[in-house]
């Protein structure tokens, strides 16, 4: 009965007793149930702090593929949970709030993408991990922002390639690999929002600062960047660099780990276009909270389900990505 109600809300909407120490309770539940908590860098800081592992999309998939836990709690968005479920069909995969979708994945409906692929026979299909399992099922190889360049370059220069769904990442990879991949016209609402004017203003205010940008940003923002990379790459660059100040054009959740690893440095979130807020948060990622994580572990709900026929096809391009990444040492 309760589950029917939770199915409608997409999460366990039961109030948590305010006397419960959530961190202690989550830790106890995870041990009791042999569960592992994986979190993306765009999660709230308190979720990142309690997770067994925090990483980018590639690292989360790699971690899910090798865990021996019985339950995977994926603190991220729906496609990340699906990827974990496809890789581990016998495990229970939970996401604290099933409403945590992704505007980029939504910009690529599976039926339309399958039709597009059908209209282009002879093309190799490369899909960004930010897609549904159904899109992955009609894909030859999946990529993330960490390995997209290397995986595209693993194909001959004259290979005919469809790349979806992110047009900004696709254009960027085309430019750095000197290719002409056919692009799906999708985008992420967070990364498309960064304001060129406001970044230029910040650069003028802090001339010593370097601009770090995620390749999902528009080309006009990427042109301003001193370094372009996945969340994990931006983090690595910022912590290794001699420079002390950075303007960061990606979801602002990454600043938590940047600040933790480099407490002596200053990280300024790049501002979006139309906002009174100085940061740029993914509304989907931020649906997960510590309370929802606690309830999710307690009731083992909501669970990610993937149609077995779709999973059977989707697992192939995901495993291909993991194999290539391993060979490349990524
Ligand atoms: P990475 O985790 O690959 O940097 O991608 C960011 C993202 O958009 C996750 O949704
Ligand atoms: Fe999707 Fe963009 Fe949110 Fe990442 S930041 S989950 S690409 S909507």
If you had to describe this structure to a student in words, what would you say it looks like?
This protein is an alpha/beta fold. The chain has 16 helices and twelve strands. It has helices at 2-9, 22-32, 45-50, 57-66, 78-87, 103-106, 110-118, 133-136, 148-153, 167-177, 196-205, 219-222, 231-240, 254-261, 290-299, 308-328; strands spanning 35-40, 53-55, 71-75, 92-94, 124-128, 141-143, 161-164, 182-183, 210-213, 227-228, 245-249, 266-269. The strands form three sheets. Strands 2-1-3-4 form a four-stranded parallel beta sheet, with helices on both faces. Helix 5 (78-87) links the parallel strand 3 (71-75) and strand 4. Helix 2 packs parallel to helix 15 and helix 4 (57-66) runs parallel beside helix 5. The longest helix is centred in the C-terminal third of the chain and has 21 residues, at 308-328. The model has no long low-confidence stretch (mean pLDDT 96). Bound molecules: 1,3-dihydroxyacetonephosphate and iron/sulfur cluster.
Helices, strands, pairings?
Elements: H1 2-9, H2 22-32, E1 35-40, H3 45-50, E2 53-55, H4 57-66, E3 71-75, H5 78-87, E4 92-94, H6 103-106, H7 110-118, E5 124-128, H8 133-136, E6 141-143, H9 148-153, E7 161-164, H10 167-177, E8 182-183, H11 196-205, E9 210-213, H12 219-222, E10 227-228, H13 231-240, E11 245-249, H14 254-261, E12 266-269, H15 290-299, H16 308-328
Parallel strand pairs: 1-2, 1-3, 3-4, 5-6, 5-7, 7-8, 9-10, 9-11, 11-12
Helix pairs in contact: 2-15, 4-5, 5-16, 13-14
The site of iron/sulfur cluster has 14 residues, from α6.
């Amino acid at each position: 009965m309760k589950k029917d109600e939770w199915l409608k809300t997409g999460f366990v909407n039961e109030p948590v007793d305010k006397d419960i120490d959530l961190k202690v309770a989550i830790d106890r539940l995870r041990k009791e149930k042999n569960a592992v908590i994986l979190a993306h860098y765009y999660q709230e800081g308190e979720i990142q702090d309690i997770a067994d592992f925090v990483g980018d999309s590639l690292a989360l998939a790699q971690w899910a593929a090798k865990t021996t836990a019985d339950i995977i709690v994926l603190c991220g968005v729906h496609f990340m949970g699906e990827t974990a479920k496809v890789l581990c069909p016998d495990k229970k995969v939970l996401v604290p709030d099933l409403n945590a979708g992704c505007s980029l994945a939504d910009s690529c409906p599976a039926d339309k993408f399958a039709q597009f692929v059908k209209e282009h026979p002879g093309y190799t299909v490369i899909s960004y991990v930010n897609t549904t399992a159904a899109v992955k099922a009609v894909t030859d190889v999946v990529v993330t922002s960490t390995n997209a360049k290397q995986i595209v370059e693993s194909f001959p220069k004259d290979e005919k390639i469809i790349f979806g769904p992110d047009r900004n990442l696709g254009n960027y990879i085309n430019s750095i690999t000197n290719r002409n991949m056919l692009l799906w016209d999708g985008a992420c609402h967070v990364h498309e929002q960064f304001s060129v004017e406001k970044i230029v203003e910040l650069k003028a205010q802090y001339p010593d600062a370097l601009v770090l940008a995620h390749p999902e940003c528009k080309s006009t923002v990427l042109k301003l960047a001193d370094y372009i990379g996945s969340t994990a790459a931006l983090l690595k660059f910022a912590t290794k660099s001699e420079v002390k100040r950075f303007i960061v054009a990606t979801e602002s959740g990454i600043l938590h780990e940047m600040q933790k690893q480099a407490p002596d440095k200053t990280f300024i979130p790049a501002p979006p276009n139309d906002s009174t807020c100085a940061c740029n948060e993914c509304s989907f990622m931020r649906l997960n909270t510590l309370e929802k994580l606690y309830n999710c572990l307690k009731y083992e709900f909501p669970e990610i389900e993937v149609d077995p026929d779709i999973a059977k096809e989707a697992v192939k391009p995901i495993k291909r990505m993991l194999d290539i990444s391993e060979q490349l040492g990524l």
